[in-house]
Amino acid sequence: MSGGLPLTAFAGFLEHFSGALTAGDTDAALSRTAAALGALAGEGSVYVGFYRREAPPIVLDFAGPDEWNRVYPNGYYLLDPTYEAFLTGGESACLLPAKVFPSDFRNSEYYLTYYRPYGMVDEICFLLYLTPDLAAYISMMRLDNAPSFTAAETRRMNAALPAMQAVAAHVWKLHAGGNETSDAQRELHSHLAAAYESFGRDRLSDREADVTRLLLKGLSPKAVGRLLKIAPGTVRNHIKRIYVKLDVRSQAELLAYFFEVLGDSAARRPSL
After folding, report:
1. Residue 41: exposed, middle, or buried by beta-carbon count in 10 A (0-12, 13-18, 19+)?
2. CA angle, 252 as apex, 51 and 269 as ends, to 5°?
3. CATH 3.30.450.80 domain range(s) in the chain
4. What phi and psi, each to the nearest 5 degrees, are found at residue 137?
């Protein structure tokens, strides 16, 4: 792993990695994990949590309260390409935006509304399966005016996958202590997922509902057409009818309306 990395930085990685594995509480383990990744790839903001197949994600605010983490479990995760990768994958991986983001995702309303306001420039995300139904995510983001990750930094992060797998298992043990997912958490996820699947179905045709769900996930109209095997002109006609039926005028308003529906759904369920 040390190829191209100064020995002092490599030593720092080993020290912080060891500290993460021996830490006795979650915040200490994650702070050492963030420091270890910093030794490999320099400056970056680290986000950590756990995806569960039958419950909302667990987000860990080890660096203090964060608006991103506050709204994410309230249904925003349903549109996230990384969450989709968790649902469809099964093997731990070091993910880059090019691997998980749909084509033109950075121009989508979901990206512009949820990612871009936090200043995300680039991201490397470890998706680390602990069981088929549970995976940690350890994401390092470059924000604001920071440069993108270099090829060398990306290689080092890829090489750190086994180390991050061990950290994820230790953090889960510290955080969960073997506790099972509660019925209330399962109920909330089920309610949010149903709200997503049924969004607009009382007013839209089945095909229009399919187009709407893909638009919400950040796919461009061209990508929607490719996925559904329909012509671009047909997609545009569907979008026009969707806007009229849902009384919105743009993808931005469509996404805002969806988040409003999710918020109402989350508010009606038991708190976690």
Report:
1. buried
2. 45
3. 7-176
4. -120, 130
- Quick one: CA torsion of 158, 162, 164, 167, rounded to 10 degrees? -170
pLDDT tens-digit readout, 189-216: 988 898 898 899 899 999 999 999 999 9
Provide CATH code, domain 7-176: 3.30.450.80
CA distance 117 to 127: 23
Lay out the sheet containing 45-52: strands in order across: 55-60, 45-52, 134-143, 120-131, 93-95
Q: Can you give the pTM of this predicted structure?
A: 0.88
- DSSP letter (8 states) at residue 36: H
Q: 3-class SS at 209?
A: helix
Instruction: Give the pLDDT confidence of 86-140 residue by residue, as tens digits.
Output: 999 999 999 998 888 877 787 788 888 877 777 788 899 999 999 999 999 999 9
Cα distance from N-terminal residue to C-terminal residue, the chain: 41
Class for domain 199-265, per CATH? mainly alpha
List, for residues 69-88, the tens digit of each pLDDT value. 778 888 889 999 999 999 99
Q: Cα-atom radius of gyration of the chain, to the nearest Å?
A: 20
